[in-house]
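Dear Dr. K.,

Following up on our conversation at the group meeting, I've run the structure prediction for (2Fe-2S)-binding protein from Paraburkholderia fungorum. I'm pasting the input sequence below exactly as I used it, so you can double-check it against your construct before we proceed with anything downstream. Let me know if the numbering doesn't match what you have in your notebook.
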Amino acid sequence: MPQTIVVNGQPHEVKSSPDTPLLYVLRNELQLNGPKFGCGLAQCGACTVHLGDNAVRSCVFPVSGAVQPVTTVEGLAAQKPPNPLIASFVKHQAVQCGYCISGMVMTSAALLKQKPHATRAEIIAALDGNLCRCGTHLRILDAVAEAAGGKQA
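The predicted structure tokens came back this morning:
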């Protein structure tokens, strides 16, 4: 039986079985490429999206659980006016290969919704489960800290 989910403000009827990971529905049915498959075990954060205001790992989250609106990095990037967090990532050149960045941005955005003036320690704690193999961690932390209105370094 088809299920309707709201993604980036738009309703979508999905045909996948209810236990299909949300990530597969986003990428395969809805053709959204922001969330990435990293580990499939909810340990790297590359697949992070928002369900309501909460960051979730879409690689292990069943589509049947998507009863609140889903926001991907594409939805965040399309906001008007532009999302200051994304602008800060660009300013700080916090992207190298870009594979992890969707998850980094979405995790950071969820943190800043809950704690708009998060401290560097809170940012580090929130991003602890997101992996970046390129080593842009310091630039990522600086970008999030700036978006939170805090100091870098």
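Two things stood out to me. The first strand starts at residue 3 and ends at 7. The chain has a mean pLDDT of 95.

Best regards,
J.T.
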